[in-house]
Prior knowledge:
5-stranded mixed β-barrel, single chain, 18 strands, 2 domains, 8-stranded mixed β-sheet, 36% helix, elongated
Amino acid sequence: MNRQKQNEPSESQVIQHRRQKADFLRENQVPLFPNTFRKTTQISRIISENADAGGDELEDQGITYRLAGRIMALRSFGKVTFIHVQDCTDRIQAFVQRDILGPEKYALFKKFDIGDIVGVEGGLFRTRTGELTIKVEKIILLSKSMRPLPEKYHGLKDVETRYRQRYVDLLVNPRAKEIFVTRTRIVRSIRSFLDDSGFMEVETPMMQSIPGGATARPFQTHHNALDMRLYLRIAPELYLKRLLVGGFEKVYEINRNFRNEGISTQHNPEFTMLEFYWAYVDFKDLMSFTEEMFSSLAQELSGSNRIIYQEKIVDLTPPWKRLSFYQSLEEIGGLSREEYHDPETAKKLVQKLGENVQADEKLGKLQAKLFDILVEPKLIQPHFIYHYPTDISPLSRKNDEDPTITDRFELFIAGREMANAFSELNDPVDQRERLEEQVREKDAGDDEAHFMDEDYIRALEYAMPPAAGEGIGIDRLVMLFTDSASIREVILFPLLRPEVTGG
């Protein structure tokens, strides 16, 4: 085994050999990167239209197909060669014969490699094993691959390399490609669901002078012409609610957000969110709407409300479990009211569970940490957790009967937050007081606290209708529906440290 590995050429040797082949083709007037071939069909269509055709029927068709794709396998037997050609839809075998191409063209074809992109013309037949195959009448090099595909070197298995070289990952790992096809289907389905429900899609600024709509640390940049500091948005919320003030009643945005936070299996600093706002409804209406959206999505993707995530069955059939925030601490977290309601007791418990606590940390934040540790990981089936403490919900409407809690819910599935929604705070006086408190927290060292936004207060002073809004993490939604354990699996190009090269 070791002797065989020692005899294998290194990757650099293979690259050098490919460059020599490229030089040979160029010297023989074979363009390495022409743009003259036009394909007329996709491989998947060829396969589907001829799936049941027998060999004699294929021979009698007299159809010449023009397809293009990448050579993914190559087996040469002297005067004949079998290749597998793959396009964006499927893969098909092609049979290249010296007697058909002619000696000169066949000799040039023999300089083609796995990974090269080719254009192929020919009719169909079935081999003795019954495999549908293109009998090549003409083959043209469209793009020369100077590097070998990783299958030759035991596959592309290193996780970081897969993310860093996603272009190769998509070529050799069908699972990776499937995830991103599904991601596109999910976004398209959500957009269609909202459009059909009367929502209007809008676009709001990604660079903002005041970042708002969430409690998070922003990224900073600078606009030279205006000589002003700008922030990449952490959420589009405050702009979307300005549109409610302006008279729109149903708006949404599928948006990129940026938060200067840690990286984990559930967090990437750049991520995709759906946010939608709906006038004249409250947070309870959004619970039913969210159930309908997720159930519709599940049915479209898999034809069932039951999906498998990390070997666990998740049932998305409405209605879903509803628990208040404090109920969840008791019924799922196993805490007594005394344990989570007394600040000193809660602080000691959080510290005992291994979390850091600030000296002046508010009770609501302590309770949220208890929830994160003791409750959230256990919420495998869909749960709406509602009535969060007011001091951790700076943009949510206070509950009319108990002002210490808000009319807000978070949706949890598979042990993680999937959505955050609330009845919107539209009282400008209350909103100012809440933002002023956030400013005090920021001045005290909380770099995730909300900024003061005077223009947003001014907008509320023109009267915003009663409304509810919701944010849904698209990346986590894709993780759920593709059974992906890490957010990096569902982001085409996740943020990575710079690649170390050289010595």
